Amino acid sequence: MIVMRYILVLCALVMPVRGLFAVRQDNTSSIDQKISALHLDRKGVTVYISKLSHTLTLKIDTVTLKEYYCVFGGNPYSDKKYEGDQCTPEGVFHVLSKYPHSDWEKFIWIDYPNNESWRKFETNKQQGKLPPNATIGGSIGIHGVPNHRSDLIDNTINWTLGCISLRDEDVNEIYNYVSAGTEVIITK
Fold it and tell me: pLDDT of 59-100, one tens digit each?
């Protein structure tokens, strides 16, 4: 009985102290802490997307802030040639805008097609590599999953028509670090 009272008293003393010194462990805080500790300019965030490794990486200069797992269109490893090919475009893009989306949690819209996309499209069209009625497409972005279906990401199901998809909690976190003009580099 005395031992039990001793344990209860000890727990009562330790619990408030532990709570007092507890550090919040959410990822947004850790990214903010890294930016602050390294004196980085938050406006310098660049988004790097590797289709081969299925990763989206937030960086400032050479410093990796965080890496996320992502999926792509149904044809994940080819460069986008035309609307409907289920490919994710490759190249250097920029965020046009971002907004909440009823189907995908958040939508970070990138500037596909840009001048380089149009150049590739016209070249492919002139070389007869596209269907005669092909259009270039658009509305490519970074977004979450339908109906909170994180299993699509967890099981590497490339389900989009060409966008980059992440778990809802990941796109919500990234959303805080990008803005219009943020560079997005998509590679094979």
Answer: 999 999 999 999 999 999 999 999 999 999 999 999 999 999
Long-range contacts, stretch 132-137, CB < 8 angstroms, 24+ apart: 134/81, 134/82, 134/83, 134/84, 135/82, 135/83, 136/82, 136/83, 137/80, 137/82, 137/83, 137/84, 137/112, 137/113, 137/162
- Encoded amino acid at 142, one letter: I
Rg (CA), the chain: 22
Whether 54 maps to a domain, the answer reads yes
Any domain includes 76: yes
Domain that holds residue 151: 41-187
pTM exceeding the 0.85 threshold for the entire prediction: no
Residue corresponding to tokens 């972005």: 141
Q: Has residue 180 been placed in a domain? A: yes
Residue 30 lies in a domain: no
